[in-house]
Amino acid sequence: MIQRLSLFSAIILMAFVALTGCASSDKFKVMEQRAENPARPLRVMVRDFADKRTREEKSYINFAKVPLNFYGGYFYYDLHDAKFPTQSAPFPTLVAKHVAERLNEVGVFDKVEYVAPDANPQLGDYDLELKGTINRLRTRGRINYYGLSIFGDFIHYTAVPKFVRRWEIDWEYQLVDAYTGEPVGEPKQVKMITRRTSLSTYANRGETKDLEKKMVPAIDEYITKAWSDLPGAQASEWVALKERGAQVIASRQAESQAIADSRKPRFRFLSPGDGEVVRGATAPLRWDVTAPGKLKNVVLVANNEPVSLGINPLDLAVVSSAPTTIQPREAAVPLKLGANKLEALVEDHTGESSRASITVTRLPQPLTPARRYALLIGADSPAAAAGVASLAPVLADPMYGQFPADSVTTVTSLDDAAAVRQMLTNFGSKPVSGDLALIYVACKGDWESGKILGGAITLGDFLKAAAESTATENVVVVADIDWNAAAGTTDVLAKTGAQLRQGWAFMTPQSTGGPAIEANGTRAFSAQFIDVMKGVGSDATRVTVERFLNDLTVGYEPKTSGKSVPDFFGRYNRSNTMVERQ
């Protein structure tokens, strides 16, 4: 007897292992794949599954109304009732929530979220949508009736079910590009079968756990089927999908903006164009306006100051109709030197409004002479080199120095007198008669010998070599020299003045005791030169390089009213030079 029981138990155990092993095989596969495959870098939404079930009912009953016997039959239904089980969530919602939860647990994607039917996610919130369809929900069952007999009553009272059933559910999964709606991969079919239970089981909310537990292996079956078809986490397909998505979003936004703009009045700048460069204190502005309704107001502001457009707001009711068009008109807009921001506001009687803006850069009038060259020498110290490096772009700026960029030469080291003379020869060959030449030299100097540039050449020989190699008579020389000892300023001016050619201007900005160094490590004079050219700290007209040429001549008139005041070799006008700014 014991052996028989043991054999029976073994058979039951083997059957149980076989059944549970089959049920969980997909789960084991999923867990293995989870360890081997990193999550795809995607955001996925899951909505309620679509419900395509239809009502279909079939049954077969064998009647046997004979005492001492029972009779019954079999039936199945294809149900379309979406509220199964009746006391839980609707079945399409229940499935979608469990799918999202399981996908997050397994880690197939970075993020999987259930999205309720009434939610309205924005385009771009998700990369993929997992769509599901319930194709069939069939219930199979058996119904038993009992005859009036001792045998029938015995069966009834021993709780043999009178009405039992189980559920067979078929659904389909399909990944879809959330940006374009295009399918990703092939659809996957999954079947789910519940255990057989009595008629009242799913009317009890607590018993619905059986249905939910059965979903996990069914969902794992989908994951197992789909995982091998999905590209890996680093695959280029996902990058391409997101790039297409970005293009779709941009296109949709442009369409939405175009639709919104079509409902608004519009001010259009016709000329000058955005970013355009002009010269002169005013610019002729051409503009027009279109509006789907009647206009209420049109306003133009230049640099935060209102500009008259020649339209009286009170007259807009007269010139406005629906739709409204104001043909191109012109207005004179005052401009300051540099960037000017022009902003327009147009409003109609419905409350719709729009703004438009452009930036127009006003440059000063072209300087004379138009052809100009600069030689910037910063040697013997980091501050001198830093000074010419800062000065060069300001000279080349069309707002300030107006020197062509390729006509500004910067030198930071010189070896000997031959190298100095060769440098001056190379530079002097470029400007011709009538051109402007600026020579700025910042270096150390020995007062007794008069040598500069590390002892390579005397200041007098430097000026002589510059004069011999330069054809133009329009030359400005700035000798920003750090002398090693105090001496009479007039003496050096007297020695060098005789060597200057007619039309040249010579300037020695350094006072005795050495040059000051700015906080940024540059020489003080080069920094001041830049500030003066830009008009920093003053509302007066900018001082430009050609003022040296126009207002300084070979006549000798030194100025020594203060250590910070430059000494000039030349005649000057205080209202037109840098003196008052230093």
Short note summarizing the structure:
By secondary structure, the chain is of the alpha/beta class. The protein is built from twelve helices and 25 strands.
Low-confidence stretches: 1-25, 62-66, 199-206, 551-582
Beta-strand residue fraction? 25-35%
| Backbone structural class | alpha/beta
Q: Mean of the pLDDT scores?
A: 75
Helical proportion?
25-40%
Number of strands: 25
How many DSSP H or I helices?
Answer: 12
Radius of gyration: 46 Å
Major beta sheet summary = 9 strands, mixed
Overall shape: it is elongated
Distance between the termini: 121 Å
Task: Walk me through this protein's architecture.
The protein has 582 residues and is an alpha/beta fold. It is 30% helix and 31% strand. The chain contains 12 helices and 25 strands. The strands form 5 sheets. Strands 1, 2, 3, 4, 5, 6, 7, 8 and 9 form a 9-stranded mixed beta sheet that branches. It has a 6-stranded mixed beta sheet with strand order 19-18-20-23-24-25, with helices on both faces. A 5-stranded mixed beta sheet has the order 11-17-16-13-14, with no helix packed on it. It is elongated, with a radius of gyration of 46 Å. The N and C termini lie far apart (121 Å). Mean pLDDT is 75; it is low at 1-25, 62-66, 199-206 and 551-582.
